[in-house]
Design brief:
The complex is a heterodimer.
Chain A (H helix, E strand, L loop, with lengths): L11 H4 L4 H28 L2 H11 E6 L6 E2 L5 E7 L2 E4 L9 H13 L4 H9 L6 E4 L4 H10 L4 E4 L2 E4 L7 H4 L11 H5 L1 H5 L3 E7 L5 E9 L7 E2 L4 H17 L4 E8 L5 E7 L12 H4 L2 H4 L9 H10 L8 E3 L4 E4 L2 E4 L6 E3 H7 L2 H8 L4 H10 L26 H8 L8 H7 L1 H4 L3 E2 L14 E2 L3 H14 L17 E11 L2 E15 L6 E8 L8 H4 L1 H14 L22
Parallel strand pairs in A: 2-10
Antiparallel strand pairs in A: 1-8, 2-3, 3-7, 4-5, 4-6, 8-9, 11-12, 11-21, 13-16, 14-15, 17-18, 19-20, 20-21
Helix pairs in contact in A: 4-6, 10-22, 13-15, 13-20, 14-20, 15-17
Chain B lengths: L1 H56 L2 H10 L13 E2 L5 E2 L17 H5 L2
Antiparallel strand pairs in B: 1-2
The chains are: A alpha+beta, B mainly alpha.
Amino acid sequence: MSRRSVRYTTSPLLASKTPVWRSKFIVAGIAFGFVVLAGRAAYVQVFNNSFFQRQGEVRFARTLELPANRGRILDRNGLILASSVVAPSIWAIPEDIERDDPEVRAKLKQVAKLLEMPQKDFDKKLEDEDKTFVWIKRQVDEPIAKQIAALNLKGIYQRKEYKRQYPEGEAAAHVVGFTNVEDNGQEGIELSFNKDLAGKAGSRRVIKDRLGRVVEGVGEQVPPVDGKDIQLSVDSKVQFFAYQKLRDAVTARKAKAGSVVVLDAVTGEVLALANYPSYVPDKRQNLTGEQLRNRALTDTFEPGSTMKPITVAMALEAGRVKPSTLIETGPGRFQIGGFTISDTHNYGTLTVEGVIQKSSNVGALKIAQKMTPHEMWDTYTALGYGQKPQIQFPGAVSGRLRPWKTWKPVEQATMAYGYGLSASLFQMAHSYTAFAHDGAIIPVTILKNSAPPAGVQVFSSANALAVRKMLQMAAGPGGTGTRAQTIGYSVGGKSGTAHKQVGKGYASNKYRAWFTGMAPIEKPRIIVGVMIDEPSDGQYFGGVAAAPVFSEVVQQTLRMMNVPPDLAVKPLVMTQGVDESF
Amino acid sequence: MARLNLLLMLAVVASALYLVHTQYLSRQLYTELDRTQQEARRLELDRDRLQVEKRAQATPLRVEKLAKEQLQMRTTTPAITQYVRPDGSVIPAVVAPPPAPPAGPAPKPTARAQR
């Protein structure tokens, strides 16, 4: 019997020897794995490390912006006219606000109250719960922002922003201008000097730790360049008084608007430039174009009789007349080119001085007829008419002065008394620097200026003096501008009353009242120009509507400039003037 | 040889630890510097704000209002003003205005006398 025996304790498989290649294969396999890993490591660490370095940096390095301060605007005495202050903006993540909590709801009410927002508007902003960012209010005053921060509400956050503050408010609004919410200049000096004021923001790269603290600066730092301070020639006190007196006069005369320009007759600096109506630069809701317009620079008008001294001065300069030359103005009317030009009275025979004093249209045109259009045009141009004033201010206009070749005789005649050409109040006041500065017209500037200005001689100093004397007579007894007189100081100036142009013709009942003059007349320190637009209480003559503003502005300005009075001081009683022509 | 190696290794370890410590210190100082700089900037802005506020309290409008209403002051006129030079000497009040006496005739006292 044969039996196959099976041994369970041994196995031929186990008895067979493992082939050597197997263990070698495993070792090789593992070694290969390591090589791949090492290769990968080398690739990551050495050959292609930039990707990971960048990724790392994204997680801990931050670029911080270093904001530049916007420069301040100062007046001539270094007082602040505009400066930036911190004004945090409040924003929210509506979905993060836990409205179900009554405590939170009470706090939200408080926030709305602090922000002076109607509860309805406030709720509306937070209505949409899907939104992740909502401005609640931009540029809030810092103390209020601090109170809101103290409430510690989840979902309500603040962002640091800056806003401009204008301590002088509406008085200096047209000079200073304002910036928008992005801190860019929009008007006035803020606009024209925006580049200098803005500065340049810097930046730096830092490494922040887990808690958001800056632990290290990396790379190079670009320091911020703060904006420069701009110092204006404007004196905030003069500016204020000029604005105040203008506002009172415009209101009292029920006029539409008005402007005042005060120039330093010695240096050509603008001491004040005010317009009414004005606006508060901080609060610009419901702003109208009427309020925004810087009329003294942007609006041009026919200057009327205020041009007459210029007509006379050019005739004196050309040697065609002397101050004592007699001009026949009777019978108070003059026919030219189908038009009749008339005076309010028949003044009979007047001297050249008398023509200015009584403001005779006929006299002025007869003097102009002694000149050629070319001569007149040259003088007007030298005095800055028909050109933009060289002043760094937005919106300054050139006015209208047509080429002399196209002048008709009647136009040459009307220009003698200020019709047929147009100018802004600023140009008008500027042209009078020629009289105040011994015949030389000096450049004007809105920036504080220490260097004496280089003038261009237009008239001889003797002729300038003669015209000043006429201006003094015009503002003196028997003249048209007696209300320009002021206690203690001798003044000289010329009133003007111009019919307003409406459409193609002149409106018979709409006027513009002007007064341009200087003080003290012997050695002028200031030139003041006043324009009142459409006085509608019946007193529309320049000598009545505009001259009192001149008087008050001169009084205050000279006092503030420490100019001693040059007249014996007596209680001022108005002398009886005459009606003026226009 | 082995001893030297051990020594060098200890030195390396010590130096490494010191480096870590220094790095830590430098970061701490940097954080401090940064905080202080921020504080300086905040104070600077605060100063600006306060200056504007101070100025807003002293605008001519407010000054005039307070002077008139609370202190019962009135605007001065040359009639009640004595003018002095910087050295303290009094400028005579009438007609001839020093320091430069006018070249022409005295400015029109006659014109005013007739009133």
